[in-house]
Amino acid sequence: MGVSLKMDQALLTFHNLLTEETSVFYTSDYCYKCVPQLLVAVKPNNNNNNESAVISTKFALTMQVQSPNRNTTFCRWSQTYEEGGQYSVWIQRSEVESEAVCFHTVDEAPHHANLPLLVATLLLAVIALLVVLVPYIYRRRCTSHFIKTICCQGSQPSVDNLSLQDGAAAGREAANRPGNAKPARLLSLDAFRGFSLTVMVFVNYGGGGYWFFQHAPWNGLTVADLVMPWFVFIIGTSVVLAFRSMQRRGASRRQLLRKTTWRTVVLFLLGFCFLNYSPRDGPLSWSWLRVPGVLQRLAFTYFVLSLLQTFWGQKEIPLRAPHWWSPLQDVLLYWPQWLIILLLETVWLSVTFLLPVPNCPTGYLGAGGIGDNGLYPECTGGAAGLVDRWMFGDNMYRYPTCKEMYQTTQPFDPEGLLGTINSVVMGFLGMQAGKIFICYKGRNLHILGRLLVWAVILGISAAILSKCTRDGGFIPVNKNLWSLSYVVCMGCFSFLLLGAMYFVIDIQSWWGGQPFIYPGMNSIFVYVGHSLLGFYFPFSWEMRFQESHWERLFQSLWGTALWVLIAYFLYRKKFFLKI
User: Fold this and answer.
1) Residue among 111, 215, 530, 549 flagged as catalytic
2) What pLDDT, in 10s, does the model give residues 528-540?
3) How do the domains of the chain map onto residue ranges?
4) What predicted TM-score, i.e. pTM, was given to this entire model?
5) 68, 173, 406 from 21: Cα distances, Å
6) Composition of the chain by helix, strand, coil, percent to 5
7) Residue 549 annotated as catalytic
């Protein structure tokens, strides 16, 4: 038909064989209670009239064919169309004269949209297998006395060439020892951080154009919605471990506060400058200045968590004998921190559900626009959006994830003020993980058990708050709002993932965390670097093939792999950017 389709698009051609004009409306099944939108109007069958429309294939669509004159619906169906496909929909009379029917034909077969992802997954699996097997085979060969005398003589002392008497386990331990880090370093935490950062870089490069590697339009979860809470969780765990170490070495509160303030200011300025950078306007784009941002939120979260640990942390665990409350020592010993966190969460709940919002229902958590039957078009984000508009005016994020699907007009910032409160709560859950490692040091079974218990508690809480639905819960899981259900759900995933990595890396030494441990130890460098240079060659380029995911996925993987490789070389050079 001569129509050029891009990724996530299909062509629908409607043939009206009736004697009256018909209108075709559509809604996305992902859009909550959205008002049907007009797709095409097809004239009656006088000269074999037809109308074509390009539609999105990301989500299932509900179509309905209506008569504009009689306000009746002829037919209605819900279907997920496939990328690159061209379909015809025939509207005609049924055998019953008063009814009409619609049926589909395929004019051109669709693409296999997930084939590039499948091929890439298989290739990455093969590469990962080779990375694991090749060093293992090499070590096994070097244990042979004959091969050792031929190949392994004259090795120079380094972290990569150990004496053979140390065995394979010692080899793994030394190979995984990052730079000049102490032997007691929690490698699973570095690997967790690096894994989160790698996924973040990948999704920031577009994730191959797949919708599930992009943020959810409003409620619900995608892969892209996981990485930021993981980062916040890791910040909390790192604060507990690092500050306790500094306090035990004799650092005063004044020194800790100075270090905390310096890091907070640097992080905030980095985020503020890079967020508003424009090649046209220079370092700061004063024509459109946005204050909230990812690094700004991380900076504020780090500052609050550091204050909690500075003033109400524990240098030593005072318990010497078992008490009835010993199983809860990682909670009860830090009761002032819990009191502050509960107060902050009370503030979030009170403002979210009690603050009056003009022309909006109190406690509204929807996207507005055409959602909720079009009753609240200007209410995007409810109280969260109102508070940010009070503080920042129009200098906010103008393209929220709900804009395209819900056709919203209000700016909404996913890094707004109210969400920052729950970001602190998320980081505090990470602090709880750090306290578990401290209170039960040396008792791995207790550590794994408590990480699992916290995951179960938070998972059940998320299920209750969301009612295990995307839109119908008391508090839906929503990354834009950083809702309470989102925080406890991400906390559940974080405890599970950290526990699994701790078991595999630090306990069993089955895996050293490569390659994620490399960007994990230079996270600031990789994040800032990919934010500044990520959209320049050789990390990305202007794509020529827009009709499928092949080139876009290759570009996303290529750019991500380059940053992992850069982090590896920095790791080998023992260069670690710290602030």
Assistant:
1) 215
2) 888 888 788 888 8
3) 9-108, 115-170, 176-315+325-572
4) 0.87
5) 7, 74, 28
6) 50, 10, 40
7) no
